[in-house]
Amino acid sequence: MPLTPLTEPLGNQRASHLLRRTVFGATPDLVQEFSQLTPQQAIERLFISDLPLPEPPIDPATGQEWMLTGTTDANSEGFELEQYFLGWQMGQFLAPNVEENQKLPYIFRERLVYFLHTHFTTKRSVVGSSRALYFQNQLFRKFAFDQFFTIEDSLEPLNFKDLVLKVSLDNAMLRFLDGRLNVKGSPNENFARELLELYTIGRGLEGTDKGSSEVGDYGTFTELDVQEGARVLSGFNTDQNFSFIDEQTSLPTAIAKGDGLTASQHDNASKKLSFRFGEAVISPNPELQLNGQATYESAVDEIKQFVDVIFQQEETAIHICRKLYRFFVYHEIKEETQNGVIKDMATVFVESGFSLQAVLTSLFQSREFYEGGDGLTDDNFGSIIKSPIDLIIGHARNFELQLPDYLTDATTFYEFTNEWLNTMRIMGLNFYEPFEVAGYPAYHQFPIYHRGWITTSYLTQRYAYVQRVSRADMMEMSVAISTPIQYVEKYVDNAIAANARELVVEVANQFLALTENLGFQNEGSSPLTEERLNYFLNAFLKTFQIDENPEEAWTFRWTQGVDRETVERQLQDLFNAILQSPEYQLM
């Protein structure tokens, strides 16, 4: 059955939910604007064509980019350039140097770039090339809005299946999973195994019986498929100069090992897959060979045949949609969820020609994304623990942080983004340095998933970061960001701000995921108890109690505009309490 369309206006809680999951959150004005839209209208605001690609990062040593032109002795060291690339990607999450009317879809595209990075994982220390990382990152960016990615002489846009083919020949991936070492007569199976297990067909729903007890049979593919797949993928090398360009993506791609005319290290014999793939045979196309020998074109065509066979299997679309569901909706997928919403998503995915954009459009316009499926009494609000990126970029979005312009002040820009990267690392996300080939555990490790973001150590670091930014200490680093008092003056009605209890409810409404019927007097229907709201109220007015009647004193100071120093300190205490709360860690 298809996903259940949601056609009425979103309202505040749904709008907040959508914006939190797609663009790291938003200001109250934007939430209010989206609350008036139907899901269909909202998605039209997120998916737009003709978005600009970002300007490449700048090396402070030269004041110039190096991704497109290459490096010279004047450039910074390689490890420094890699760090600049990571900082540059962090900056892209805030849409720098982008027209205002394009910022929202631009940020959404960057979120999809991050999703694709968590799916097709790579590791900076293994790849060892900022340029290889950058071009892979650009590849993801081109495929993020795939229904808009068309090529000359074709009316059909490229899709996720095409992306799998491109990733198989990506220079960073060839380094990361040893594809460059895979040659005829001495196959390296690393990439073939992960292509099947992680990137395409998977190994079935985690925690369930795979229906096979045979050694080497994983329920969806077998060891034979890994071995034959490695032969299909053999004979390619990284292009150290990044000068061999894919005609469809206009990005650097792999080269064939050989004499320039033939791919002499590619296994040119036919390959027969297991019964899991209907014993399909992958054979070289004689019309693409040169006198019966493999060429670059014939070797690539074999990979295309292999990918086609993989995507003909029902389980491939289901596996990809499970990954999307866990990233955007909820980590737990039971068999009833798989047989319901996951297969509904997979149907859209297949019928759209494996379009990532199509399946996400259908998901974000569905009741299941917001409120669960028919017959369920729960919902998906606040069901995901924020990753360190969600926490940091979400806060920056809420408080309208303005980074220095990396094109004109690269040194200051990288100083700040390095602080972000270091903070993320001690929160458990070492960006572009996952410690296993499957990627960051929060996105794949059954049954923990995103709950792995919360340990005693990681939570302490989250609270320390929030405490620092709630005091607006970032201003010491020449970064423009709203202070709590500036935020309240801008986004809270003055009459509400003058009433301490109403202000607590309003700030909680704007920053927490579960806010429907929130209030001191709504016992039984409020998602936060009166005791919990009183905790925020006491933190607000009584952390350093100086008044006999704190609530009246607050009203007097706010309405009369006096003792601004005390007002600022009390608001910092309020924001610190709410942003350090367990509830704020949810999205």
UniProtKB/TrEMBL annotation:
UniProt xrefs under InterPro entries: DUF1800
Origin superkingdom: Bacteria
Pfam families for this protein: DUF1800
UniProt name for this protein: DUF1800 family protein
Lineage, opening ranks: Bacteria, Pseudomonadati, Bacteroidota, Cytophagia, Cytophagales
